[in-house]
């Protein structure tokens, strides 16, 4: 354990400065348990890829990025330290001929943090990253190490746990044999084709992302389709294949992005949009994301499009994806396939916060936020059928509210 306090710093995009008293990096699960027993207030800190006070605490921030453990593969299951980043885990799995079913846009995020917030990739038949979890180990508010396995009574409530139940030290993930992906970018998508063919486009190949700024570009298009295929590139109505690599934000250098132009390669080098050894996304930015029942997708598109004049000056780019339904209580895809509407904003917190209430009011009923990003609603529980069950779970796992913070007070209540 460090003998001197370490500066707590900020979120990766510098959108929020942590106010915690101290940052501690334990080396073992025993160290984590000792911390929980000693400190009245603490909170797990992942890879800092959030934009709010979600991970903050008036006490001690706990980073697991120095746990002295490596992944362990046993058959199809890999046991992973919670602080490990996906980019490091996926390379380790690839060396052993194994793979995960899907990945997020960024390989820079930690496994425990991504799972706890319901982070996802894309694909109409692909669940969020949390759906690969078969077991997790948590140091709860009493300092006890609790193991939960799929099928146990509390498992579905604890996987997407937003840090409220304790510190997740390890997770076990289901793997498959490794596979190849080819990535192509399709340009010239019009809003009419996006709206009419949305379901077909999202289901055209294994993983699909649509990038747009919601208003017409000079060529009459609204965006590009990034297709990640197991075999051949799809036909996307009204589009043409890009002849050179692209960045997800029009006009930026594509060097940070994963390989395109249809060249097949290992799954972990194509499913993310960004390479591990580059700064992801834009850098100085804010992000929001809303997950809408897929059956109301066209209504959601029209709602966002109606605010295009207000959105465009604030926006770097927006991404549209699909995520398959799951049974995890606080997952934004709980019980229904969803359309994910992601917004990468300029670093303009006042402008974004003024827009979000109007945007959320226009989105269809049943829309849920991504927990790690900016949203305006302070009462999301109405759209999560197991909300009260989750609050009961928190009371059992953390009776003294050691892991509670201002964000949970505001959002969970």
UniProtKB/TrEMBL annotation:
EC number: 1.1.3.41
Pfam families: ALO, FAD_binding_4
Sequence ranges assigned to domain FAD-binding PCMH-type in this UniProt record: 16-178
Highest taxon, organism lineage: Bacteria
Gene3D superfamilies: 3.30.465.10, 3.30.70.2520, 3.30.70.2530, Uridine Diphospho-n-acetylenolpyruvylglucosamine Reductase, domain 2, Vanillyl-alcohol Oxidase, Chain A, domain 4
Gene Ontology annotations for the cellular component aspect, listed alphabetically: membrane
InterPro entries: ALO_C, FAD-bd_PCMH, FAD-bd_PCMH-like_sf, FAD-bd_PCMH_sub1, FAD-bd_PCMH_sub2, FAD_lactone_oxidase-like, Oxid_FAD_bind_N, Vanillyl_alc_oxidase_C-sub2
Record GO terms (molecular function): D-arabinono-1,4-lactone oxidase activity; FAD binding; L-gulono-1,4-lactone dehydrogenase activity; xylitol oxidase activity
Alphabetized UniProt keyword annotations: Oxidoreductase
UniProt key word Disulfide bond: no
Keyword Oxidoreductase listed: yes
UniProt protein name: Xylitol oxidase
């Amino acid at each position: 354990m460090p003998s001197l306090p370490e500066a707590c710093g900020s979120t990766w995009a510098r959108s929020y400065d942590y106010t915690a008293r101290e940052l501690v990096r334990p080396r073992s699960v025993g160290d984590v348990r000792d911390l929980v027993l000693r400190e009245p207030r603490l909170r797990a800190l992942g890879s800092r890829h959030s934009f709010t006070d979600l991970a903050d605490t008036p006490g001690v921030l706990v980073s697991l990025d120095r746990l002295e453990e490596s992944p362990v593969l046993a058959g199809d299951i890999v046991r992973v330290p919670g602080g490990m980043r996906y980019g490091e885990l996926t390379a380790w799995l690839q060396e052993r001929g194994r793979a995960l079913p899907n990945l997020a846009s960024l390989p820079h995020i930690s496994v425990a943090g991504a799972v706890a917030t319901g982070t996802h990739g894309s694909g109409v038949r692909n669940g969020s990253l949390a759906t690969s979890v078969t077991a997790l180990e948590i140091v709860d508010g009493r300092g006890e190490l609790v193991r939960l396995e799929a099928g146990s009574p509390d498992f579905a409530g604890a996987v997407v746990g937003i840090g409220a139940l304790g510190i997740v030290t390890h997770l076990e993930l289901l793997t498959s044999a490794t596979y190849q992906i080819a990535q192509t970018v399709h340009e010239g998508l019009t809003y009419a084709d996006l709206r009419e063919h949305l379901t077909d486009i999202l289901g055209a190949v294994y993983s699909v992302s649509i990038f747009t700024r919601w208003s017409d570009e000079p060529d009459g298009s609204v965006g590009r389709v990034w297709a990640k295929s197991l075999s051949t590139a799809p036909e996307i109505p009204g589009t043409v294949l890009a002849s050179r690599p692209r960045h997800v934000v029009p006009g930026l250098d594509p060097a940070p992005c994963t390989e395109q132009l249809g060249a097949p390669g290992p799954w972990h080098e194509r499913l993310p949009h960004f390479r591990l050894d580059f700064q992801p996304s834009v850098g100085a930015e804010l992000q929001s994301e809303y997950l809408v029942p897929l059956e109301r997708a066209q209504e959601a598109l029209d709602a966002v499009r109606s605010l295009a004049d207000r959105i465009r000056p604030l926006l770097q780019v927006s991404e549209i994806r699909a995520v398959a339904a799951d049974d995890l209580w606080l997952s934004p895809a709980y019980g229904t396939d969803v359309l994910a509407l992601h917004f990468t904003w300029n670093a303009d917190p006042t402008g974004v916060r003024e827009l979000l209430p109007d945007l959320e009011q226009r989105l269809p009923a049943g829309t849920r936020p991504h927990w790690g990003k900016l949203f305006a609603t302070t009462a999301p529980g109405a759209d999560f059928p197991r909300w009260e069950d989750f609050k009961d779970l928190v009371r059992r796992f953390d009776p003294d509210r050691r892991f509670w913070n201002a964000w949970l007070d505001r959002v969970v209540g």
